[in-house]
Amino acid sequence: MLSGVKAGLVSADVLRREQQELRRHERNNKHLEEESRHSETVFRDKLGRKRDLVQERLEQRQKAEVKSERDEQYAKWGKGLAQERQQQQNVEDAIKEMQKPLARYIDDQDLDRMLREQEREGDPMADFIKKRKAKENKEKEKPRYNGPAPPLNRFNIWPGHRWDGVDRSNGFEQQRFARIANKKAVQELAYKWSVEDM
């Protein structure tokens, strides 16, 4: 039979012996059963290596956090950065206005400045003020040279915007850079020669 006992007509002695062997076999396997009862399940991947479930959960959590941050950033960008800045500015202005007293007088400088900065349609002075502001901003930016790359100098000074690109120097700067490069090359060769046998 499958249990290991004999089938058919069996004497009492044979039956008793078989039962004793079964009990002895169970006693021998009892410690294996106790050990396996408290053991943890081992999970393996397709290649048969053990999987570290705690580490996998941690990695999944980190990936989810990164994905949520990225989704939040994309949602922020989709909303419009300029609109968000404008909304923030409106909130700050509202808070500032709430802190002021309710009654406003003729000499309120904030109100005066706000009214002056508003652009009204059909204002004859608006074009004049825009041109004046553009001219002021233009004067602040100094013109820069934008032509072929100028020769190097020891102070890294960029040429003026009116430079015609002709090098009228006596060659001192080029000689100085050549000496520096030569000195550096000699030092490098000396170092390589000194450590050649190591």
From TrEMBL:
InterPro entries: Bud13, CWC26_splicing_factor. GO terms for biological process: mRNA splicing, via spliceosome. Residues 20-41, 118-156 are annotated as: Disordered. Coiled coil: none annotated. Belongs to the CWC26 family. One of its GO terms (cellular component) is RES complex. It comes from Balaeniceps rex. Transmembrane segments: none annotated. This is BUD13 homolog.
